Amino acid sequence: FHSGEREEKCIIEDVPSDTLVMGNYKVQRWDIHKQDFLESAPGLGMFVTVTSPSAEILLSKLYGPQGTFSFTSYLSGEHVICLQSNSTRFVAFAGSKLRIHLDIRVGEHFLDESVVQAKDKVNEVNFRLEHLTEQIQHISKEQNYEREREEKFRKTSEETNSNILWWAIVQTLILISIGMWQIKSLRDFFISKKLV
């Protein structure tokens, strides 16, 4: 995505509890002379701030023009990941555009291929099985989290439907009572005028 030089951009990531989140980013600065983004942005860094659903700051750190950050979620819910450049230019002069490449991985543990190649085949299979077991546990956590969210949404929907039903019944009773009152008033009016 593109950003202004001192502009803060935030991304909301819905994460289950006790889950590792890793992010890789790279910043490129716009070059006016070349009319293209430079491959790197020397001297430019990024402030990375991560806020939990309870507004607790999990991570607040300055990184370089490219880097990796990680955090573990303690609560399930929407975590806000914000990136802002550490440009020292004044706001009036900081009109340069930045291109930020961001890759966020939730709950993944990556295989270190150099470790895998260094071990014999039995250890490699064992290592890969452990990795698969971790992935299965992560998928299970993710499913449980989605199940909780679906149950909460279903309860809210049922409460809303119940309220709508009761409101419709109250409206019907009010309309019937007003109609009966109007008929009685009209009948009394006709009787008082001796038209009936």
Question: Under the CATH scheme, which architecture of the largest domain would be assigned?
Answer: Sandwich
CATH-defined topology of the largest domain:
Jelly Rolls
Radius of gyration: 31 Å
Helix count from the secondary structure assignment: 2
The CATH C-level name of the largest domain is Mainly Beta
Estimate the strand proportion: 25-35%
Number of domains: 2
Helix content: 25-40%
Overall spatial form:
elongated
The N- and C-terminal alpha carbons lie at a distance of: 81 Å
Low-confidence stretches: 90-94
Give the overall pLDDT as a whole number.
Answer: 82
What sequence of helices (H) and strands (E) makes up the elements?
EEEEEEEEEHH
Feature tags:
about 200 residues, alpha+beta, 2 domains, four-stranded antiparallel beta sheet, 2 helices, about 35% strand
Task: Please give a structural write-up.
The protein has helices spanning 113-118, 121-192; strands at 2-4, 8-15, 19-31, 36-37, 46-51, 57-63, 66-73, 77-85, 97-106. The protein is α+β, with helices and mostly antiparallel strands. The strands form two sheets. Strands 1, 3, 4, 7 and 9 form a five-stranded antiparallel β-sheet that branches. It has a four-stranded antiparallel β-sheet with strand order 2-8-5-6, with no helix packed on it. Mean pLDDT is 82; it is low at 90-94.
